[in-house]
Design brief:
65% helix, 2 helices, elongated, alpha+beta, 206 residues, three-stranded mixed β-sheet, Nucleotide Exchange Factor Grpe, Chain A, domain 2, 15% strand
C-alpha cells in the first residue's frame, strides 16, 4: 500500500470513529434526557404528595383545635351545671328544713300550752298531749317518715332491727318477741333501727 493509500485509509477510519463517537454522545444525551424527565416526574409526584400531606395535616390540626375548643366549652358548661345544681339542692334542702321547723314550732306551741295549763284537768291535759302527738305524727308522715314496728313472730332484719335481749316467749325461736322501741325510716333509708327482743323458743317454760 502506498503512502497515499495509507493516509486515505487513516482518514476513513478517523471519520468512522468520529461518527461512532457522535452517535454514542447522542445516545447518551437521549438517555440522560429520559432519565432527567423520569426523575423530574418522580420529584413532581413527591412534591404533590408532600403538599397533599401538608394540607391533610393542616386540616387535622384544625380539626383537633376545634375538638379541643368544644371539649373545653363542654367541660366549662358541665362545671357551671354542677355549681347550679349544687346551689339548687342547697336551696331546696334549706327550704325543706325551714318548712319542717315551721311545722315543729306549731307542735312545740301545743306542748307549751299543755305544760303551762293550770286548770288541773288531767284528762284535758292528756287529750292535749295526744293531739300534739298526732300532729307530730302528721309532720313525720308529710316528710315521708314511717315507723318500723315489726309484728311479734316475724323474722329479724339486721338492717332494720336491733336485738336487745333473748327472752322467754311463745313466739318461734329466733323470731321477734316484742318491740322495745320502734324505729323509723325515710324514703327507704333507716333513720333509726327498731329495738326488739327475740324469742329463745322456750315457750315460757322454766
Amino acid at each position: 500500500m502506498t503512502e497515499e493509500d495509507a493516509t486515505a485509509q487513516e482518514q476513513v477510519d478517523t471519520g468512522r470513529d468520529d461518527d461512532e463517537e457522535a452517535a454514542f454522545e447522542r445516545e447518551l444525551a437521549a438517555e440522560v434526557a429520559a432519565h432527567d424527565e423520569e426523575l423530574g416526574a418522580a420529584v413532581a409526584d413527591l412534591e404533590e404528595r408532600a403538599a397533599d400531606l401538608e394540607a391533610d395535616l393542616a386540616a387535622r390540626e384544625e380539626e383537633v383545635d376545634e375538638l379541643t375548643e368544644r371539649l373545653q366549652r363542654t367541660q366549662a358548661d358541665f362545671q357551671n351545671y354542677k355549681k347550679r345544681a349544687k346551689k339548687r339542692q342547697e336551696q331546696l334542702e334549706k327550704r325543706a328544713t325551714e318548712d319542717l321547723v315551721a311545722r315543729l314550732l306549731d307542735v312545740r306551741d301545743n306542748l307549751t300550752r299543755a305544760v303551762t295549763d293550770e286548770s288541773g284537768d288531767l284528762e284535758a291535759l292528756r287529750e292535749g298531749v295526744e293531739m300534739t302527738l298526732d300532729e307530730f305524727d302528721h309532720v313525720l308522715d308529710a316528710e315521708g317518715v314511717s315507723e318500723i314496728e315489726p309484728e311479734p313472730g316475724s323474722e329479724v332484719d339486721p338492717e332494720r332491727h336491733e336485738v336487745m335481749l333473748r327472752v322467754d316467749s311463745d313466739e318461734p325461736e329466733d323470731t321477734i318477741a316484742e318491740v322495745y322501741r320502734p324505729g323509723y325510716e325515710m324514703a327507704g333509708k333507716v333513720l333509726r333501727t327498731a329495738q326488739v327482743t327475740v324469742s329463745d323458743g322456750s315457750n315460757g317454760e322454766e
